[in-house]
Predict the 3D structure of the following.
Amino acid sequence: MSGIASVRLWLRRRRPSDLLLFGVTLAELGILVYLTPTFTITDWIYILQHVVALGIALTRPAPEAQNRSPLSNSAVAMSYAYPYAEIIWLRWRPGDEAWPDAGLALVTLAAALSLASLITLGRFFGIRPAMRGLAIRGPYSAIRHPMYLAYMISDVGYNFQEWNTGTALLTLAGWVSLLYRIHAEEKVLSAHSGWTTYTSSVRYRLIPGLW
């Protein structure tokens, strides 16, 4: 069997959800490259994150359980769409600068936290709420959803760089979808044998001391 035929056979054996994650990630990577005139360290971190996600999409195991409800799917779609909706909105209605330097610092911090969280999750990573395993090390030893915290930090950073009422409302809508995803994911993960022990030692979901 030729190398190309082997690759095609291997791809046919992947689940549709794996190919969906691969396609979405590849599209996001293409958009990132297209929209970025010059690359900073933050941009390179995000590119590395997408490359890691592409590898995960083609190597991760099947989930033991998964939430495919319409509400869950809607929350996932919203959480992926709202950052791009903000970009489109700002091109139509330019915003104001609030604190650009602080915004850049927050976006860089968020990129690093997001990459560290993704590497820690490894092949447990997915789009829908699912259980492929339980990450308990790295950022996950401090809070239960560090990747979502990274998304929220980056949202604040981008709004510091340029914002208006529209971007603020879109950010709030996106955060509602992220909070729902946390609820849905924890409901699925609660079936894991180590969940009770993990949540007793890592009490907070997003912000230590608050929630």
